[in-house]
Structure formats: structure tokens, C-alpha cells
């Protein structure tokens, strides 16, 4: 009987130890998830000087998208999140919105960025039309790796969005020094803010952990407007 009681006590102690260990592991796991889902506050906001701006350029809150025209997630973000952001905050003058080229997909990313910067340089009032139209041309994700950003494609989109486009001026602008300087400036911002994924969304100096979490974006905006 004494031996049986001793074994029972050992079993209880062993069970309690296992419970404590699993409880600790669960707590650590939840804490890790919390950190992953937490927004990051950095020292300063990205400069939007020389960048295309939608909304009130003098707004207290600046929202920046680090994006890539070849990025499928950026296309989805533009279709699902941006319209709500535009309706709630951009069109109402509460925030400004800017786009910074992030060249994560090679030469096609670069050509798309060159085209967008050329449009912005020569026809700034048509930039956002071109911006949306170029994303609209991105094929379905299953065909994402197919070559689709070509000079003929960006020219086609530019002609469709810019009445009376000066074709030769557009073509010459793609590889001009001023355009390369714009891309170099964007790359400096990408490096400065250690951008690792697209889209990355920043609300002033707050990096949104999940760019598809509109509620997190909304809360960050409200925080910055108070």
C-alpha cells in the first residue's frame, strides 16, 4: 500500500510538471504571436518629398506604401484595402498617401517603376490612373512569374491613361538620368527603413504588422490624429 501511494504521488508530481511545461510553452508561443502581430514604431516617417501624393499633402498623417508592380500581394492590397482607405481617409483630407517603388522582382519591377516615374515626371495629374491601370494588367497569381512588364505593355497602359501621350518623350524618359535618380532615391528609403516585404504600409512612423488588417491601419490613423 505504501509503495502504491508513493507511485501515485510521483505520477501526480510528474503530471503537474508536464502541465507547467506545456503552459509555459503555450504562453511563450502566444507572446511570440503577439510580437509578430504588433506594429513597429520607428524613429521617423519616410520623407515623401518628390513622391506622388494622393489626398491632402499637408495632412497630419502620412501613409506610405512600399510596393512593387510585380508583387501579387500589392495588387490584392490595392483592390481590397486601398478603396476603403481612400473613401474613409484620403478623399476626406485626413491623410496623405504616397507610393514608393520597391524593386524586389528584378528587371520587370524596375521597368514598371521607370514607367511610373516617367508618367509622374511628365504627366503628374495622370499618375494614379496609370498606377492603377498597370496593377490591373498584372496577371493572376498562377501566372505571376510570366513575363508581362515589357516596354510595349507600359507604353500601351500609358497611352490608355494619358490622352495625347508624347510617345517618344515617354520612351526616352524610361532610361533617363532623372528617372534613375528617382529610383535610387526610393532605394535609399527602402534600405533606410529596412523594408523586407511588399506591400509594407507605414502610418507616419508606425509600420503596420499586417498590411491587410484594415482595423490596425484605422487604429494607427486615429492614434496619430489625436
TrEMBL record:
InterPro entries: Thioredoxin-like_fold, Thioredoxin-like_sf, Thioredoxin_domain
Keyword Nucleotidyltransferase (UniProt): no
Ranges where the Thioredoxin domain occurs: 31-226
Superkingdom to which the source organism belongs: Bacteria
Record GO terms (molecular function): oxidoreductase activity
Pfam families hit by this protein: Thioredoxin_4 (PF13462)
Membrane spanning stretches: 12-31
This protein's UniProt keywords: Disulfide bond, Membrane, Oxidoreductase, Redox-active center, Signal, Transmembrane, Transmembrane helix
Recorded family membership: Belongs to the thioredoxin family. DsbA subfamily.
Protein name in UniProt: DsbA family protein
Amino acid at each position: 500500500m505504501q509503495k502504491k501511494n508513493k507511485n501515485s504521488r510521483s505520477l501526480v508530481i510528474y503530471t503537474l510538471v508536464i502541465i507547467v511545461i506545456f503552459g509555459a510553452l503555450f504562453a511563450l508561443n502566444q507572446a511570440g504571436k503577439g510580437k509578430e502581430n504588433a506594429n513597429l514604431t520607428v524613429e521617423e516617417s519616410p520623407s515623401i518629398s518628390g513622391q506622388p501624393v494622393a489626398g491632402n499633402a499637408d495632412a497630419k498623417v502620412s501613409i506610405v506604401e512600399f510596393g512593387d508592380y510585380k508583387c501579387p500581394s500589392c495588387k490584392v492590397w490595392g483592390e481590397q484595402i486601398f478603396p476603403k482607405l481612400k473613401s474613409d481617409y484620403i478623399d476626406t483630407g485626413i491623410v496623405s498617401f504616397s507610393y514608393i517603388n520597391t524593386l524586389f522582382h528584378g528587371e520587370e519591377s524596375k521597368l514598371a517603376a521607370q514607367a511610373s516615374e516617367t508618367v509622374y515626371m511628365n504627366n503628374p495629374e495622370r499618375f494614379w490612373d496609370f498606377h492603377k491601370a498597370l496593377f490591373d494588367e498584372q496577371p493572376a497569381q498562377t501566372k505571376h512569374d510570366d513575363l508581362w512588364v515589357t516596354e510595349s505593355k507600359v507604353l500601351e497602359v500609358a497611352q490608355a491613361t494619358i490622352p495625347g501621350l508624347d510617345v517618344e518623350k515617354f520612351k526616352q524618359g524610361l532610361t533617363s538620368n532623372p528617372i534613375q535618380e528617382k529610383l535610387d532615391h526610393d532605394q535609399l528609403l527602402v534600405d533606410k527603413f529596412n523594408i523586407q516585404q511588399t506591400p509594407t504600409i507605414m502610418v507616419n512612423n508606425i509600420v503596420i504588422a499586417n498590411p491587410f488588417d484594415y482595423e490596425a491601419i484605422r487604429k494607427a490613423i486615429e492614434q496619430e490624429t489625436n
